[in-house]
Design goal:
Strand order of the largest sheet of chain A: 1-2
Number of helices of chain B: 20
Order of helices and strands of chain A: HHEEHHHHHHHHHHHHHHHHHHHHEE
Helix content of chain A: over 70%
Structural class of chain B: mainly alpha
Strand content of chain A: 5-15%
Strand content of chain B: under 5%
Structural class of chain A: mainly alpha
Number of helices of chain A: 22
Helix content of chain B: over 70%
Largest sheet of chain B: 2 strands, antiparallel
Number of strands of chain B: 2
Radius of gyration of chain B: 22 Å
Largest sheet of chain A: 2 strands, antiparallel
Distance between the termini of chain A: 46 Å
Largest interface: A-B, 34 and 35 residues
Oligomer: heterodimer
Shape of chain B: globular
Number of strands of chain A: 4
Shape of chain A: globular
Radius of gyration of chain A: 22 Å
């Protein structure tokens, strides 16, 4: 069974979704919870069976699909993708558990299960076309979730979401075809296998163009400034569950793809574009933090803070060293947990008042003390308070980039301070002070079902903040092998200099009173 | 005293003619049956036509076996040419026709199917298309073209609505002009080279080094215009949306596939040597045709309010996309053309059939056309299965993986990439993104809007019978599970195309 556990993880929810059409409406939620629980347990089995000492791919499956054109159904995971897969199963489970009274709940659960299939597929794919297939397929359930259960502007928001990502990924597809063609030129056979591509060293000018083609696809998905405009609309209109999955998992596809494709395939180009991309990332952090401060809608605050966090992730990824990349992957998980949790919490209050405007609230801490406490913890985690999950990721990302550029890291750091300001301001507006609005006087506190959805996230946010090693270890392991590969493949001086050489032992020379690091 | 002309019977190679003779015999038989005993039900003729098409298909399989064994076969005084292109073209023509003909077994009674002549003409038309692709003699191409076109005009007009007459007349006029262009272009090439066979024309032109390049270009320009009419390339596309709108949905779907593949095969034969002789003018013009056809028709499709017209413009766009293969001209590109068109046949025939089963005898109150977007609003609530299938076809047309057309697009763009047409590859990719919008628009109407008042789920399947459902089922299954069939298809196509030297 373990040989095919990845295929099972991918297609079990899809099969369950198809069978779901036969389930009666009232029993559907139980069915959905059961299926999602099985999926989550399977993903934990995956973790249990995962060998932490191996840095390469595990649970590899390979079935020829179109051998004449080098397309194989090939799957495998390493420390980088393992935890994102677990996270996606975790969120599908929590999402279905905490689903509040949704109309047409049966179709919602079927859609969510299909979405889980595409998410597992994206992170387990080792073939570019398989990856692309799941990447594109993930748009369809999300389109339906936003378009069918969203707010008043839902159709505009869903179409914008779909077309933006679709256009970007088609450019990426052309890049993939070029990559396969170059591989064909070099090796004589067609191949879309990522592991085959890893072995291909391209001339620098090819790398630059291909990097740009892939970058467009990934950057729209992340979304990076200036392609970020679809995200606030999507979040603003999506139902709670849609925002949760979108923020927690779907956005991570872009940053994950940077680590999986852009860095190891194009090390020279990654080093070449490091500073421009870092500048974009810093703009993302500072600009969206300021925009977040100006929002009146609490969901938009969380949405913009998401973009700012994605900026930190990008910054860490393009630090091109082990600290930065591991930190950014850890931050992907952290941001998934925290932003997903915050969107769930916003959903709680939205279900009660059907508004998300902060001016409508105030003094909620008096009426809903438990809710306020949990919200406070998650908000602190979002800000990056030490001993919470985001702190580890942010710290490592910034530490990684500090080795490349001090000024940009400093600027990014100020952005994070702004992040603390707007989050605390939003919290103050909504929770502290007197209860001014009559409608808020008798709000019921967070109920059991909602607690069941949110408490696990709080536990994870604190657990991994205090003791990140079980997760960080495998990540570090795989990232180290990627950085080694990048250094070995780098051809330009710039890349050799920016990507650290991990094969040489690091020694420290004591010269009088100055500590100096020598490679 | 003339010496008796002595031709060995074997040299005629009659079996090269067999695939065309079978539908002709079928058509004559249908006419004879009508003379002997009139007033029979349409189902008899449908099944007869289907039977003859199946026989046709098997005779093609026989020829394909011979071809893969012995290589290109010539017959009938070297007029008939059975090579990989001819066989692939005929497979698509006959295969798509087999999928089309059961669509006439509708629940509602439509005028045209009560005439046996409809089915006779249909079979004559198929024979005409088969002649077109199975020769490199321009005169026989012309004869095949005219046979099939005249039959097709009549088939459209038999739908017996005002718009159908308009469509038929429009198509006829435009088709006559295209035929004139074709004849004129052929005349110039004959005057230059003294031959009407494409490979001899190529040889003569190459041996004198394209010395009369001016005349060659005039000839090529006329031929190109004739092809552009048939393939509905912009700016020769003006007939297409009106004709599609006027024809029945099933016929429109058929027209978007079969006549075009016949024209593509002829164009491939004709332009292959011209592209490889690097006439810059031709490359530029073809490039412009491809880009403008793809892009402009996508723009027009965006603003349509009727689904059938949208699909008409989308078909034009797909034709432009595939025309890129003619421009690129490598074996990979030519194989991509056939792969794309096979996958496109299933998906497009499926989506037009979905329109066809929702066809009413009369317009619904408050609707200005048969298939307006409004009619499909909220379809998921009233007729979920039909909505899911229609959505599937739209996603496939938009090129979302893993559905059928994605693989065609993938291979086509890859052939552009492999031949150094980087900009073209990007334009093709971005056009798929633009096209995504109007396919998505229908999905949005079906899945996210509220149903229009007075529309119940019944109208989406008003015309459905077992036969129609089966055809749509086949199309849907082929669309979803295409990825299983891509590898054998690709190997088969590539072997046939490269064995014929294209």
């Amino acid at each position: 069974m373990l040989d095919h556990i990845l295929s099972i993880l991918i297609f079990f929810p899809a099969l369950a979704a198809v069978f779901g059409f036969m389930i009666q409406k009232e029993s559907m939620r139980t069915y959905g919870v059961a299926v999602a629980l099985i999926e989550f347990v399977l993903s934990l089995v995956l973790w249990y069976a995962f060998d932490n000492n191996v840095s390469g791919m595990q649970f590899v499956e390979n079935i020829p699909l179109i051998p004449a054109f080098g397309i194989n159904y090939s799957l495998g995971i390493d420390g980088i993708s393992l935890f994102i897969i677990i996270l996606s199963a975790f969120f599908t489970f929590l999402g279905i558990v905490s689903l509040t009274d949704t109309p047409k709940v049966k179709y919602m659960i079927i859609t969510l299960l299909f979405l889980q299939m595409t998410m597992a597929g994206v992170f387990a794919a080792l073939d570019a076309i398989v990856f692309y297939t799941f990447w594109e397929l993930s748009l369809v359930p999300m389109l339906y979730i936003i378009g069918a259960w969203g707010g008043p502007l839902r159709i505009y928001a869903s179409i914008k979401f779909f077309l933006y990502t679709f256009a970007g990924s088609l450019v990426m597809l052309v890049g993939m075809l070029f990559m396969a063609y170059f591989y064909h030129q070099a090796a004589g056979v067609w191949s879309f296998s990522i592991l085959d591509w890893y072995r291909l060293v391209l001339p620098e000018n090819f790398q630059l163009w291909l990097f740009v083609a892939f970058f467009i696809g990934f950057a729209i998905k992340v979304p990076m400034f200036p392609f970020h405009t679809w995200l606030p609309y999507a979040h603003g209109q999506a139902p709670t569950i849609g925002s949760v999955i979108l923020a927690a998992i779907l956005l991570k596809m872009g940053t994950y793809a940077f680590v999986r494709f852009s860095l190891p395939l194009f090390p020279d180009a990654a080093a070449y574009f490091m500073i421009p991309i870092a500048i974009l990332a810093v703009i993302m952090i500072i600009y969206t933090s300021m925009v977040a401060y100006a929002q009146k809608d609490i969901k938009q605050v969380v949405a913009y803070s998401s973009i700012a966090h994605m900026g930190v992730i990008i910054l860490g990824t393009f630090a091109l060293n082990v600290e930065g990349v591991s930190g950014s992957i850890f931050l992907m998980l952290g941001h998934g947990v925290v932003a997903g949790g915050l969107f769930m919490l916003v959903g709680v209050i939205y279900d009660r008042r059907h508004t998300k405007l902060m001016s409508e609230f105030g003094g909620l801490a008096h009426v809903m003390p438990r809710y306020a406490t949990i919200f406070g913890i998650m908000m602190m985690a979002s800000v990056g308070l030490p001993l919470t999950i985001n702190f580890v990721g942010e710290f490592l990302s910034l530490l990684g980039f500090y080795q490349q550029s001090h000024i940009l890291t400093l600027l990014a750091g100020t952005g994070i301070i702004v992040g603390a300001i707007y989050m605390l301001a939003a919290y103050k507006k909504a929770f502290f002070g007197e209860v001014t609005n009559e409608a808020n006087k008798n709000l019921p506190d967070i109920n059991k079902k909602e607690l069941f959805g949110i408490i696990p996230l709080v536990i994870v946010a604190i657990w991994l903040g205090v003791y990140p090693k079980p997760v960080l270890g495998p990540i570090n392991n795989s990232v180290t092998s990627i950085i080694k590969l990048m250094h070995a493949k780098a051809t330009t001086e710039l890349a050799k200099e920016r990507i650290p050489d991990l094969t040489k032992p690091r020694v420290f020379l004591m010269k009088k009173t100055i500590n100096k690091e020598v490679n | 005293m003339l010496a008796p002309v002595n031709i060995p019977f074997e040299s005629l190679n009659l079996m090269t003619l067999a695939p065309m003779l079978i539908p002709i015999i079928g058509a004559l038989l249908i006419l004879v049956i009508d003379v002997v005993k009139g007033g029979l039900d349409k189902s008899l003729y449908v099944v007869l036509a289907l039977l003859f098409l199946v026989m046709d298909f098997f005779s093609l399989l026989g020829n394909a076996g011979l071809f893969s064994h012995d290589g290109t076969i010539m017959g009938m005084f070297d007029v008939m040419l059975i090579d990989g292109l001819a066989l692939l073209g005929q497979f698509i023509i006959v295969g798509a026709s087999m999928l089309f003909i059961p669509l006439s077994l509708t629940h509602k009674r439509f005028h045209e199917f009560s005439y046996p002549e409809f089915f006779a003409l249909f079979l004559f038309m198929i024979a005409g298309f088969q002649f077109m692709v199975a020769t490199d003699n321009i005169i026989l191409v012309f004869v095949g073209l005219e046979t099939s076109s005249l039959a097709l005009y009549t088939l459209i007009a038999m739908h017996n609505r005002d718009k159908s007459f308009e469509a038929a007349i429009k198509y006829f006029t435009m088709g006559a002009l295209a035929a004139g262009f074709f004849a004129f272009g052929a005349m110039i090439l004959y005057a230059l080279t003294g031959s009407v066979e494409i490979n001899k024309i190529a040889l003569v032109l190459a041996s004198n080094g394209y010395s009369d390049i001016g005349y060659v270009l005039v000839g090529v320009a006329f031929m190109l215009a004739a092809f552009a009419f048939k393939l509905s390339l912009i700016p020769f596309h003006t007939w297409a949306p009106d004709v599609y709108e006027g024809a029945s949905a099933a016929m429109a779907g058929y027209m978007s596939i079969v006549p075009k593949i016949a024209a593509f095969v002829v164009a491939m034969r004709f332009f292959e040597f011209l592209i490889h002789s690097h006439i810059v003018w031709l490359e530029v013009v073809l490039y412009a045709f491809v880009v403008i056809t793809m892009t402009a028709s996508n723009m027009w499709a965006l603003v349509q309010t009727d689904v059938k017209r949208m699909l008409a413009y989308s078909s034009i766009s797909h034709a432009g996309f595939v025309m890129a293969a003619i421009l690129i001209g490598t074996t990979q590109a030519n194989s991509a053309l056939f792969l794309y068109w096979i996958l496109f046949s299933f998906t497009n025939l499926g989506s037009f059939s979905m329109l066809w089963i929702s066809r009413q005898k009369n317009l619904i109150d408050g609707q200005s056309s048969d298939h307006s977007y409004d009619k499909f609003a909220g379809m998921i609530k009233t007729s979920p299965v039909a909505a899911l299938i229609m959505g599937l076809f739209m996603l496939s047309l938009a090129g979302v993986p893993p559905f059928a057309l994605f693989w065609g697009k993938l291979y086509m763009i890859s052939s552009a990439v492999s031949s150094g047409y980087t900009i073209l590859a990007l334009i093709m990719a971005l056009n798929s993104a633009i096209a995504g919008y109007y396919y998505l628009k229908l999905i949005v109407y079906m899945f996210m809007k509220e149903p229009v008042v007075g529309v119940d789920g019944e109208i989406y399947v008003a015309n459905a019978t077992l036969a129609l459902r089966t055809i749509i089922g086949i199309a849907a299954v082929a669309t979803i599970f295409a990825f299983v069939a891509i590898n054998p298809l690709l190997e088969f196509i590539t072997a046939f195309v490269s064995k014929s030297g294209y």
